[in-house]
């Protein structure tokens, strides 16, 4: 048991090490020190999840059974990667420009953002991958078994199951921790990628070590190995030509279509240029991986007793030779290959499941549609986490149900053949503009039905899911439909037969249905985008978003991307459009950008549907179609130049219109300013005059009356003084004559002080304040009195204007890299869009004048903040009225 | 250069389809030809592989060079 404990210990240390590596990589990436994470070699190594436990253990078993056939599994991907210029480069480019999150997303996005297609692809991918995950779990438990047997202990079946369960739980945990940190599935998972890169090195090293040990330790070098190979039962070329070609094709196709490969190859790709390195480094990796397979197989066949399982020669040969350290290393290699595959597969599938199945259902059950406020990110993240658990658990379940039998070994190829059915639709989508959604649906369905009928069902054994009579005589006695001999063509290898017919009929029906059908405008647009991805780098406009309310879009975007990111995006876009404030106009351009950003989080189909809910359906304009139809370079260039020009004009017009509106407003304001000032001055004056006359003229006033009248005069005089003070303050600020009195203090104290002064003396409304004191511990070096004046004003406004039954004010403090942001958000009904434009002007008061005030407060605030090098803005889309105060960071230094 | 990269997989595919011409064990016995031994097959397949890797690396290197050149010209 001692040695077994050592094995468990080593395993745990290794797992802890992986967690550490992933954690360190994440931290480095967050701190911006992740330059080395973007190394093309890391990318290449992460591709090696192609080599699963099926490679690590299975290849040797495969070689021992069928000679050199195992090489086809690595030759196919080699050809695909060497030919990166043809397909991979295009896939990566499309993945980046369209912010694709998975292979289902790619296919659905290409065929008119169809969610039906996405759901179909997702389900098929899950069906195709589950047995493969089971295979990995099995390999870990069985290899553990092999070890324990060599120490004279046999694990019970329940022991195996619990092992598998532990492994499954650990893997799910790892994937959840490092795979669902960010919502944006399009962002890179540095931790995961780094961990699988490390695992890639471990498995390569382990297999090489065993290989070297076998060639130079057990045998006497290369010459001896050659002699042994030729003398063994696999000593002669026994490969059938049809299998050789079909398997190369199959593995190449699967390499492109496997969800996990798509994940590391396209989605985790950092730079297109990395493909260039991978184009030779990955074939090298594959070559080295398969180099020692035959020697290990031959030595295993020769030295181990007959009947030992060739699938675990990698372990049993070193064990039989008494080299336990090597066996342990080899165990770690197998463990690495199994775990990295499960992690990435779970990650890829969970993105697909949550984006294409859970989110659409969740959205349709939410009655309010996409524009209700509230954070939806936790729903997406939760969906993704549960999906990860679900996918891994499915694998475990399959492992339990299949009894971990030998039938699993053949499942690798069946799984490959299943996902290879995506190939015609995938390639057709990126190379042929005529391909349509109907064609894709028909092709996929036909392919999968044939695959299931000819390969999957028979694989469970005759008589279980498919009767013996069907196998021999065909269904209903139709001989030409026999699962292993379509159209009466017998003598083909069953695998070759299945792949040949499924891919052929899949392609043909895809092609015919595409030709017969007619693509919708959106499909055409997307088709042109995908096929000509190198020419169009931007998406043509497809939203006619004039009806859309930017504020609704903001609310929705905040729910999905998080308030911070969404506000950043809106602000950037507003700046690009030349509009002041935080809300851009809902121009088609902006909607396009927004959709693509959202697609990075929830997938293209869902993002499209959500924006559609708010904007009211996308329309494709004639110009868009023309842009697609006119291929010639000059036309494109001409139209793009025109577009740029009209863009510029639109921008100028927008700015002019805004300026004009502002001028008109300012002129009106000047008039109203004068009348306001005279009015504001006159009212107190009138009462002062009246009461002073009474005091002067009447002699029979009681003492109490005298006190009363003179205090009225006093109060009015104070009001006048305050008004004049405000006016003076404003004019001093505006003329820039103010001198700042810089002090050092803590933000929390400034806020305390502001709250105390704003809330005292007003007892009829009790405003509830929500603060996070820990975040307010920021040291400021600025004019604290002025800053406090701004805060007092904003808090006072909330108190005055918040019309909620239980008024509450939330003060959010946040530090960015270069600025300090303080948000004041109340729960009232907010400020209407028309008023938002003028509240910062002098004497502007919103709504009915139910509260006193000259309407100078916000104007003063804005001037003060300008003097302090900061800003104060209205923040739309927060539920209530919200103001954002931004201070530059050099004035605000974090407290140590 | 781009054309070389494009044709590399084609060359690889052609070279790796040579084994289609080899007689299998049964065929060899039937027609009394000497069958190809596994070690020879391994050497052939891995030589092709190695060639592809080296050639691919060379192409990638050349491409980087020519890209850098173009960028220099562009400046």
TrEMBL record, chain A:
Gene Ontology molecular function, alphabetical: phosphorelay sensor kinase activity; transmembrane transporter activity
Domain of life: Bacteria
Residue ranges crossing the lipid bilayer per the database entry: 6-29, 41-64, 70-88, 116-135, 163-180, 192-216, 244-262, 282-306, 326-349, 382-399, 411-432, 439-460, 498-518
Histidine kinase domain span: 676-891
Subcellular location: Membrane
EC number: 2.7.13.3
Class of the enzyme per the UniProt entry, highest EC level: transferase
Entry membrane topology: Multi-pass membrane protein
InterPro entries: HATPase_C_sf, HATPase_dom, His_kinase_dom, HisK_dim/P_dom, HisK_dim/P_sf, Na/Glc_symporter_sf, Na/solute_symporter, Sensor_HK_Regulatory
Keywords: Coiled coil, Kinase, Membrane, Phosphoprotein, Transferase, Transmembrane, Transmembrane helix, Two-component regulatory system
Cited Pfam families: HATPase_c, HisKA
Chief location: membrane
Substrates-to-products reaction catalysed: ATP + protein L-histidine = ADP + protein N-phospho-L-histidine
Family per similarity comment: Belongs to the sodium:solute symporter (SSF) (TC 2.A.21) family.
Protein name per its UniProtKB record: histidine kinase
Biological source species: Shimia marina
TrEMBL record, chain B:
Parts of the chain that traverse the membrane: 7-22, 42-61
Name used for this protein in its record: Uncharacterized protein
Keywords in alphabetical order: Membrane, Transmembrane, Transmembrane helix
Source lineage: Bacteria, Pseudomonadati, Pseudomonadota, Alphaproteobacteria, Rhodobacterales
């Amino acid at each position: 048991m001692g040695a077994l404990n050592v094995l468990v210990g080593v395993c745990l240390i290794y797992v802890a090490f992986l967690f550490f590596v992933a954690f360190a990589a994440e931290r480095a990436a967050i701190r911006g020190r992740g330059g080395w994470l973007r190394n093309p070699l890391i990318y290449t190594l992460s591709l090696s999840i192609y080599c699963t436990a099926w490679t690590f253990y299975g290849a040797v078993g495969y070689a021992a059974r069928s000679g050199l056939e195992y090489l086809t599994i690595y030759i196919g991907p080699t050809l695909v990667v060497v030919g990166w210029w043809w397909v991979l480069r295009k896939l990566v480019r499309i993945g980046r420009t369209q912010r694709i999150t998975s292979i289902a997303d790619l296919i659905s996005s290409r065929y008119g953002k169809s969610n039906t297609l996405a759901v179909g692809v997702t389900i098929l991918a899950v069906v195709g991958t589950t047995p493969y995950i089971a295979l990995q779990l099995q390999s870990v438990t069985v290899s553990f078994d092999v070890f324990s047997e060599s120490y004279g202990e046999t694990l019970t079946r329940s022991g195996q199951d619990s092992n598998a369960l532990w492994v499954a739980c650990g893997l799910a945990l790892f994937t959840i921790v490092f795979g669902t940190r960010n919502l944006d599935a399009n962002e890179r998972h540095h931790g995961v990628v780094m961990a699988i890169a490390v695992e890639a090195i471990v498995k390569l090293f382990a297999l090489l070590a065993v290989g070297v040990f076998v060639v130079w330790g057990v045998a006497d070098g290369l010459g001896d190995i050659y002699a042994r190979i030729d003398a063994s039962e696999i000593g002669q070329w026994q490969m059938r030509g049809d299998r050789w070609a079909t398997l190369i094709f199959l593995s190449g196709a699967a390499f492109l279509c496997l969800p996990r490969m798509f994940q590391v190859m396209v989605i985790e790709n950092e730079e297109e240029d990395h493909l260039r390195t991978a184009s030779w480094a990955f074939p090298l990796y594959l070559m080295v991986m398969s180099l020692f397979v035959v020697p290990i197989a031959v030595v295993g066949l020769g030295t181990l007793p007959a009947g030992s399982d060739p699938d675990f020669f990698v372990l049993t040969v070193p064990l039989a030779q008494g080299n336990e350290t090597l066996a342990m290393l080899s165990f770690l290699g197998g463990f690495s290959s199994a775990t990295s595959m499960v992690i990435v597969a779970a990650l890829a599938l969970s993105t697909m499941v949550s984006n294409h199945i859970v989110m659409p259902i969740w959205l349709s059950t939410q009655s309010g549609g996409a524009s209700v406020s509230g954070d939806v990110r936790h729903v997406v993240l939760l969906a993704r986490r549960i999906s990860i658990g679900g996918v891994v658990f499915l694998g475990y379940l399959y492992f339990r149900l299949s009894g971990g039998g030998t039938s699993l070994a053949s499942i690798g190829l069946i799984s490959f053949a299943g996902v290879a059915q995506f190939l015609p639709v995938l390639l057709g989508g990126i190379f042929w503009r005529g391909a349509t959604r109907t064609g894709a649906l028909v092709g996929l369905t036909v392919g999968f039905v044939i695959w299931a009928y000819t390969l999957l069902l028979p694989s469970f054994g005759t008589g279980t899911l498919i009767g013996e009579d069907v196998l021999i005589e065909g269904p209903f006695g139709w001989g030409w439909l026999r699962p292993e001999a379509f159209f009466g063509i017998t003598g083909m290898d069953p695998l070759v037969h299945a792949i040949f017919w499924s891919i052929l009929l899949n392609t043909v029906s895809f092609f015919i249905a595409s030709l017969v059908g007619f693509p919708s405008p959106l499909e055409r647009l997307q088709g042109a985008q995908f096929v000509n991805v190198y020419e169009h780098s931007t998406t043509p406009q497809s939203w006619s978003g004039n009806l859309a309310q930017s504020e609704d879009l903001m609310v929705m975007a905040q729910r999905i991307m998080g308030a911070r990111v969404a506000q950043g995006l809106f602000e950037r876009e507003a700046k690009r459009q030349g509009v002041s404030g935080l809300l851009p106009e809902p121009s088609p351009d902006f909607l396009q950008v927004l959709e693509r950003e959202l697609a990075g989080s929830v997938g293209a189909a869902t993002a499209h549907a959500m924006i559609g809910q708010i904007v009211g359906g996308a329309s494709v304009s004639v110009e868009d179609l023309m842009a697609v139809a006119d291929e010639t370079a000059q036309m494109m260039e001409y139209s793009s130049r025109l577009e740029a020009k009209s863009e510029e004009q639109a921008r100028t017009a927008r700015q002019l219109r805004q300026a004009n509106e502002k001028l008109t407003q300012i002129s009106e304001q000047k008039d109203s300013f004068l009348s306001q000032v005279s009015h504001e001055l006159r009212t107190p004056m009138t009462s002062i005059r009246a009461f002073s006359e009474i005091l002067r003229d009447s002699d029979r006033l009681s003492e109490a009356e005298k006190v009363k009248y003179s205090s009225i005069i006093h109060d009015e005089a104070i009001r006048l003084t305050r008004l004049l003070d405000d006016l003076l303050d404003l004019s001093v600020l505006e003329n820039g004559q103010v001198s700042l009195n810089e002090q050092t203090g803590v933000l929390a104290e400034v806020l305390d002080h502001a709250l105390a002064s704003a809330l005292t003396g007003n007892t009829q409304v009790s405003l509830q304040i929500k603060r996070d004191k820990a975040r307010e511990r920021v040291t400021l070096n600025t004019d604290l009195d002025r800053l406090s004046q701004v805060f007092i004003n904003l808090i006072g406004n909330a108190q005055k204007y918040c019309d909620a039954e239980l008024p509450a004010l939330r003060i959010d403090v946040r530090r960015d890299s270069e600025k300090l942001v303080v948000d004041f958000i109340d729960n009232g009904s907010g400020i209407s869009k028309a008023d938002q434009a003028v509240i910062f002007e002098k004497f502007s008061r919103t709504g009915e004048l139910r509260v006193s005030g000259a309407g100078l407060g916000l104007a003063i605030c804005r001037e003060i903040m300008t003097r302090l090098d900061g800003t104060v803005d209205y923040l739309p889309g927060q539920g209530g009225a919200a103001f954002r105060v931004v201070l530059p960071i050099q004035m605000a230094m974090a407290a140590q | 250069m781009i054309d070389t990269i494009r044709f590399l997989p084609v060359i690889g595919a052609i070279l790796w389809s040579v084994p289609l011409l080899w007689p299998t064990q049964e065929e060899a016995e039937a027609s009394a030809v000497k069958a190809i031994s596994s070690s020879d097959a391994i050497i052939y397949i891995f030589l092709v592989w190695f060639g592809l890797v080296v050639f691919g690396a060379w192409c990638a290197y050349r491409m980087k060079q020519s890209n850098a050149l173009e960028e220099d010209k562009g400046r």
